[in-house]
């Protein structure tokens, strides 16, 4: 029985093997076909790929040709531009994208198609305060606007918006072309002292200014006057390397006035055109700050032989009203000649610029629009107004 079964099993097995075999060959055939198909497909794909690559190359070539043409065109346009001596507005506009989209575009939206009533003035008040223009200036602007609207009998919201634009422009009155320019004269040592509380961007701005002046062909030297903060000397030295500008330094913790002395003396003896002086950013207390800055001022005057020199206050525009308060304190202590408003790329509240220049009665000389070496714009109020109010 067992044997029978065994044979049966054997037969069955044979049959199964035969079936298995045919299955196997079928399978192999299938695999073969699949491989062939795949190969064909791959060949096809390869062909398509190659075709694509060729057309891609052609496209690239075409594009390169086009961009070459464009570049030539741009070069030509640039040449025309240069001969026309028109300022290039595009970079500032781009960099102001954040505040533009925030406050200034909201301002425009707010007026469009609205009736001029108390509600609108209240809305305007709110928006101006939110944008860091500050309570005092907001009240002043809204009151002036109401007065002008009544006087000129303005009815259309577009006209009221235009009037508001004019009022804001008036707040930039200290920013004439003459005032916003750095006072650098040929044939003498020019000093730029940079002050401000910590972290506002003094050292970075010094690096950027050094680059600008060097590009203009000036012989520039930097004084590492921040001997207080750890790594401050290394930071300014790094900027010195990046810009190819010599840095005068002493050890960490030494008297900053001594570094200033060294720098100005070296600059004078070796006929440098500009000495830019970094300072520590601590606003410990008003009396100490005053004493330190008085000492520094005295040394600069004695060593350079200049009674007047640039003293630039750096303000971080993202600190809003706080920045304005700091500015007022520094303005009382030192004879500021201008302001650098940094981190303008990082605020949606561009409004701070109006009270800072207006309340201090000082021009904005530069706007910082990023951390890169080129990210410092000379402040041009016309360009600024155009950039913030453009569509
Ligand atoms: N986004 C942006 N960052 C900036 C700008 N200016 C400076 N910074 C950054 O702000 C930080 C502080 O800058 P510093 O130049 O060290 O500031 P400081 O005033 O010298 O600081 P202290 O020496 O500590 O007083 C750095 O990370 C800078 O890269 C600017 O215009 N835009
Ligand atoms: Mg610094």
TrEMBL record:
GO biological-process terms attached to the record: SRP-dependent cotranslational protein targeting to membrane
Positions with a binding annotation for GTP: 196-203, 278-282, 342-345
Membrane topology type: Peripheral membrane protein
Biased composition (Basic and acidic residues): 22-58, 64-81
E.C. number(s) listed in UniProt: 3.6.5.4
InterPro entries: AAA+_ATPase, P-loop_NTPase, Signal_recog_particl_SRP54_hlx, SR_rcpt_FtsY, SRP/SRP_N, SRP54_GTPase_dom, SRP54_N_sf
SMART domains referenced in this protein's UniProt entry, alphabetically: AAA, SRP54, SRP54_N
Region (Disordered): 1-92
Transmembrane segments: none
Gene3D superfamilies (UniProt xref): P-loop containing nucleotide triphosphate hydrolases (3.40.50.300), Signal recognition particle SRP54, nucleotide-binding domain (1.20.120.140)
Catalytic activity reported: GTP + H2O = GDP + phosphate + H(+)
GO molecular function: GTP binding; GTPase activity; signal recognition particle binding
Superkingdom, natural source: Bacteria
Keywords: Cell membrane, Cytoplasm, GTP-binding, Hydrolase, Membrane, Nucleotide-binding, Receptor
GO cellular component: cytoplasm; plasma membrane
Record's subcellular location: Cell membrane; Cytoplasm
PANTHER family reported for this sequence: SIGNAL RECOGNITION PARTICLE RECEPTOR SUBUNIT ALPHA
Protein name as annotated: Signal recognition particle receptor FtsY
Source species of the chain: Leptotrichia rugosa
């Amino acid at each position: 029985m067992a044997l029978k079964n065994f044979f049966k099993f054997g037969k069955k097995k044979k049959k199964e093997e035969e079936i298995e075999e045919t299955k196997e060959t079928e399978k192999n055939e299938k695999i073969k076909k699949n491989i062939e198909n795949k190969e064909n497909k791959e060949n096809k794909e390869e062909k398509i790929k190659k075709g694509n690559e060729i057309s891609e190359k052609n496209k690239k070539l075409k594009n390169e040709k086009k961009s070459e043409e464009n570049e030539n065109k741009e070069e030509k346009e640039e040449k025309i531009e240069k001969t026309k001596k028109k300022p290039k507005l595009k970079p500032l506009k781009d960099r102001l994208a954040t505040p533009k989209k925030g406050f200034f575009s909201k301002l425009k939206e707010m007026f469009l198609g609205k009736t001029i009533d108390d509600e609108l003035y209240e809305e305007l008040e709110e928006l101006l305060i939110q944008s860091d223009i500050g309570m005092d200036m907001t009240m002043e602007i809204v009151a002036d606007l109401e007065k002008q609207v009544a006087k000129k009998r303005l009815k259309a919201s577009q006209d009221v918006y235009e009037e508001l634009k004019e009022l804001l422009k008036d707040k930039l009155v200290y920013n004439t072309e003459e005032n916003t320019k750095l006072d650098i004269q040929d044939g003498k040592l020019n000093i730029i002292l940079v002050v401000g509380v910590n972290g506002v961007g003094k050292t970075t701005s010094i690096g950027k200014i050094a680059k600008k002046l060097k590009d203009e062909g000036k012989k520039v030297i930097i004084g590492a006057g921040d001997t207080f903060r750890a790594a401050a000397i290394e930071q300014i030295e790094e900027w010195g390397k990046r810009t190819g500008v010599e840095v005068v330094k002493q050890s960490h913790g030494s008297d900053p006035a001594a570094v200033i002395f060294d720098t100005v003396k070296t600059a004078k003896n070796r006929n440098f055109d500009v000495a830019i002086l970094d300072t520590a950013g601590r606003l410990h207390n008003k009396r100490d700050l005053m004493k330190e800055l008085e000492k520094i001022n005295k040394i600069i005057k004695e060593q350079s032989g200049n009674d007047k020199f640039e003293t630039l206050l750096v303000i971080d525009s993202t600190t809003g009203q706080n920045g304005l308060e700091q500015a007022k304190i520094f303005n009382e202590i030192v004879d500021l000649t201008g302001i650098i408003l940094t981190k303008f790329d990082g605020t949606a509240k561009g409004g701070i610029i109006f009270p800072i220049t207006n309340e201090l009665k000082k021009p904005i000389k530069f706007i910082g629009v990023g951390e890169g070496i080129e990210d410092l714009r000379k402040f041009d109020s016309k360009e600024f107004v155009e950039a913030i109010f453009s569509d």
